[in-house]
Amino acid sequence: MKILLLNPNTTASMTQAIAAAARAVAAPGTEVRATQPSFGPVSIESHYDEAFAAAGVAEQVRLAAEDPPDATVIACFGDPGLDAAREVLDGPVLGIAEAAFHVASMLATGFSVVTTMTRTCVMAERLVQRYGFERSCRGIHGTDIPVLALEQAGEPMLRQIEEAARTALARDGSGAIVLGCAGMAPLCATLSDRLGVPVVDGVAAAVKLAEALVGLGLRTSRRGDYAQPLAKPFTGWAQGLAWEATRAAGGR
Ligand code: 5HY
Questions:
Q1: CA of 175 to the centre of ligand 1 (A)
Q2: Ligand 1 center–CA 232 separation, angstroms
Q3: Distance (Å) from CA 14 to ligand 1 centroid
Q4: What is the CATH number of domain 2-96+206-248?
Q5: What is the location of CATH 3.40.50.12500 in the chain?
């Protein structure tokens, strides 16, 4: 099966690091193709960044519709553009935050999220509410480590994240940790060994859930709000990304 791994920021080295984490857990026969938008923020750490990241996701799934993947993973903890992507692509589309919440809630009655910038915690809180995990998500904690600094994560930064996780487990009374950034994927195994509790990386969780959904022959519903976009002209720089009537007619 073919998984499209979509990093919504525009840092190619981060896209490759996320792709390596995805390929490390992918089953034999699963091909992971990694991509990122042609425009937008080098990292997503604010509402403004996220607005462009969502448009970047829309751009990439619109292009992917020409040769659709079996499933798609949106590899940013804000799950930007998730609903739009589900309207466009037939195969399952998974956001790493939603995937991680589902997995963590099956491993512990309560989990805590450890993320990057404290200012993005409210964005994770809104996802917890949106996805209905208020009862199992016991806390969201920022480390104020910039997203792109994670690429150079050495022992001091690893220890900083480990300490934030220990504090979260103790303060929240939770039994599992969710890593709140795709850039933390490479740190998951080490943190899990050190903390002795389940540490969930959304990239890996989303890849395995994508394989499971495709394996079950399940695809996004076309009934209701996830029906394909209505065909209409777009103007300006997005003109070429419009959803044409031909595609709408050909859709399920
Ligand atoms: C991410 N930003 O996973 C989010 C993390 C965050 O560029 N990739 C980003 O802080 O929300």
A1: 23
A2: 32
A3: 11
A4: 3.40.50.12500
A5: 2-96+206-248, 97-201
**Residue type at position 233:** P
Which distant-in-sequence residues (6+ apart) come within 8 Å of 16 by Cβ? 34
- Residue that has been written with the tokens 């300490």 in this structure: 163
- Is pLDDT above 80 for 226? yes
- One-letter amino acid at 164 equals A
**Whole-number Å distance between alpha carbons of 222 and 214:** 16
Does the pLDDT at position 246 exceed 90? Answer: no
Amino acid of residue 153: A
Tokens of 149: 């600094």
Q: Report the CATH number of the 97-201 domain.
A: 3.40.50.12500
Predicted TM-score of the model (pTM):
0.96
What are 188-202's pLDDT values in tens digits? Answer: 999 999 999 999 999
How do strand 31-35 and strand 111-115 relate by DSSP bridges? unpaired
Give the closest residue (by CA) to ligand 1 atom 5: 181
Mutate-to-test residue for ligand 1 from 7, 77, 187, 201, highest number of ligand atoms within 8 A of CB: 77
Mean predicted confidence (pLDDT) in 213-239:
96
Q: What does the pLDDT look like over 15-38, one tens digit per residue?
A: 999 999 999 999 999 999 999 999
Give long-range contacts, CB 8 A cutoff, 24+ apart: 151-154.
151/13, 151/14, 151/17, 151/183, 153/186, 153/187
**Ligand 1-lining residues (CB < 6 angstroms):** 9, 43-45, 76-78, 115-117, 120, 147, 181-183
